[in-house]
Amino acid sequence: MSSEQKRSDLANILVCGLGSLGQYCVSVLKEFGVTIYGIEFLDKTDWELPELPNWLDTLIIGDCRQSSILEQAYVGKCRAVLLVTQNAQVNIAAAFAARSLNPQIRIVMRSAQENLNQLLAQHLGNFVAFAPSQLSAAAFALAALGDETLGFFHLDNQLMRVVQLTIPADHRWCDLRQLHELNTSTRKLLSHYRPGDTVLNGFYQWEPNTKIQAGNVLIWVSLGNRLVASDPLPASDQNWLNFLKCLDWKNWRSQLNNLWQQRPQTQRVAIICGGLVAFLYLACVGLFKLQYPEIALQDAFNVALVLILGGFDNLFGQLKLPFPIPEWLHLFSAGMTIVGTIFIGILYAMLTERVLSAKFQFLQRRPPLPQANHIVLIGLGKIGKQVAMLLQSMKQPLIGINETDLEPGVLPKLPVVIGNIPDALARANLPRAKSVMVLTPDEVTNLELGLMARSINPSSRLVIRTDDPQFSENVTRLVPFAQGLSVYGLAAEAFAAAAFGENILHLFHVNRQTILVTEYQVNQGDSLDGQLLADIAYGYGVVPLLHQRGSSLSPEFLPPDDIRLHAGDRLVVMANLEGLQNVERGILAIRPWLVRIESAFSEAAIFEGATILTRCSGCDIPMARSLMNNLPATLQFPLYQHQAQRLVRELSKIRVQVYLVQTPVSGTVDSGSVFEN
User: Does residue 257 sit within a domain?
Assistant: First the structure.
């Protein structure tokens, strides 16, 4: 996201490492119309994407860690460098070299080490790192579900779901609701089509006033169950330090109570006993010091320590007490020893429980195989494990098939069939499975195993990993029931989009197109500054999911169209690659609609109508009041279809007679003439 001046100066991208991921990144970047330079360690002619040499403006053969090679690839005048070799050490070394040669360059690196990525971001600045397997795992998992959920992700502890529904004849919306009525504060419609229609790319290719009928297919994004907002501990690191950092002192009691309830019962008992022992220990020190002021403070601490560790007989075990002591203090000392003995017993019990649980964990058996309506996942490599974890987090019954056994601590709750994969299919209850995923690194093997599984269960949903684009296209054409997804093809769009400064949060697949959840920070003078959300949504073809005014205010999910962005705002949108290109280039779609207002029912309608005009269209209040006081008139302020029809509906509610006028040309309106009679 940048101004026109920045785009003209820095429309150059350097890609280091032209393996599978690098080649896909080049193919995606070419769609942005930028100049692309490439560095590859070895010269080769058998590219996975045969057109790659034609897409590159310059190809350098050499080591991207060397400053001389980077300078040959014009790193000094590039806006971004993509470091996507398979060697993490090479990527890191090249990142430091690129930063030393170009302090302003954006670095997008391939890396799966999250802690290291955070440290590099702090030291390098203008840096982002992704792991291809993590980006594509969600798309594979969702492809296997075969139900209404097309995507899911979390934004600021808020679950969001992308849902698809084919309307049955008995649905409550059928023949009663119009499409625009589905848009609420918790739901936003993305797509609508009828069986047999050509599915168009984009989000707003539907007529707002269309009535919902049986057989219609609807896709929308909605808010799911919000995570516990009062939970003071981040899920990644639940500890007291993070609790204190995020503690809101206005409701500290409820937050402390939540923290207490999250502790296991044994820990709560230990905390209570520890607090009681600490109190008695300090009380014992104080009482002995007050009773015997002539002893040193160190002696008082020593006496208390002896008593708390069960040393009552060491002090008072003789027939005659060695020193005078009041009865109450003598009884208190005995109680100290009793409490200390109980506490030590509890401590020993907890330690024994931990040791035994750790011992039995090594001997723990995996759960039994599901019998029906489950997903069979073939190939538990890096991507397979990521997909398995996602499916388990969604409570999906799952069976993994792998040639070799997994480590004891890897996916301990996953039922796994070990052995030769063709033989293992017979033991995975395949005839009653709902989906089969084949994710081994060999795409020919994937196709073979997928067809074998399909012959055993013709009704199952089949998802195959296919990294070669031509192979994937052939599979899709010849085997239409199989869905072929490429790890690098899915991840490349996230890497390419990140090169332009966006923060890619999530990625999933809808209607055979990749959807990216992208975060923007609005800067002064960029393509989002000063825009209404309606203009951003319908003009760029993106779906605003979250808006936050500065960092101090709470974010608003699925925000209304009427918000105007300012520098410093945070915006998260859902977009396909074309939408991100539109934002990057600052290219808004044409506004083809004008609003014609004939009359208003009352003076109150005239006054309120001006407010509605300002809110929905973006014109200022003097313009709107001038128009409403000179009816009939046409607002010469072009609008998008969804924006204009919403304005008509809002004005009609207050009994203003209004309709739309379509014009084939959209232009800039002079501030002195915003309407015509």
Answer: no
In a domain, 145, yes or no: no
Instruction: Among 485, 501, 523, identify where a domain stops.
Output: 485
DSSP 178: B
pLDDT at 237: 37
Question: Of 242, 251, 253, 183, which Cα lies nearest the Cα of 218?
Answer: 183
Q: Are residues 463 and 352 in the same domain?
A: no
Judge whether 427 lies within some domain. yes
Residues 316 and 221 placed together within one structural domain of the fold: no
- Do 12 and 125 fall within a single domain? yes
Residue 645 maps to which CATH number? 3.30.1390.10
DSSP strand E in 560-642: where? 570-575, 593-600, 633-639
Domain of residue 94 covers 4-131
CA distance 58 to 481: 41
Domain boundary among 460, 485, 510: 485
Q: Is the pLDDT of residue 4 over 90?
A: no
Q: Which two tokens stand for residue 232?
A: 């003071």
Per-position DSSP letters for 511-541, written without gaps between them? TTEEEEEEEEE--TTSTTTT-BHHIIIIIHT
Are 406 and 464 within one domain?
A: yes
Instruction: Compute CA 272 distance to the chain's CA centroid, rounded to the nearest angstrom.
Output: 39
Q: Which residues contact 257 (CB under 8 A, 6 or more apart)?
A: none
- Residue in this structure with the two tokens 């702090």, named with its chain if needed: 122
Query: Do 423 and 471 share a structural domain?
Result: yes
Q: How far is CA 344 from the centre of its chain?
A: 46
Neighbouring residues of 478: CB distance < 8 A, sequence distance ≥ 6: none
Looking at the 3D structure of the chain, how many domains does it have? 6
Range from 44-58, 269-283, 446-460, 552-566 carrying the lowest mean pLDDT: 269-283
| Residue 9 sits in the same domain as residue 122 | yes
- Which burial class, exposed, middle or buried, applies to 185 when counting CB atoms under 10 A from its CB (0-12, 13-18, 19+)? exposed
Check: CB of residue 243 under 8 Å from CB of residue 183: no
- Based on the domain organization, do 579 and 601 belong to the same domain? no
Residue 235 lies in a domain: no
Task: State both tokens at 200.
Answer: 């168009």
pLDDT in tens, 627-676: 888 888 888 889 999 999 999 999 999 899 998 888 765 443 333 344 45
pLDDT confidence bin for 266, thresholds 50/70/90: low
**Dist. CA 55–CA 104, nearest whole Å:** 25
Cis peptide before 622 (omega within 30 of 0): no
Q: Are residues 606 and 654 in the same domain?
A: yes
Query: Distances from the Cα of 263 to the Cαs of 260, 346, 351, 357, in angstroms?
Result: 6, 17, 17, 18
Note the pTM of the prediction, 2 decimals: 0.59
Residue in the block written with tokens 């269209």: 617
Reported as half-sphere exposure (CB side, CA atoms, 13 A), residue 350 has a value of 16
Q: Using DSSP, state whether 471 is helix, strand or coil.
A: helix
- Partners of residue 661 on adjacent β-strands: 594
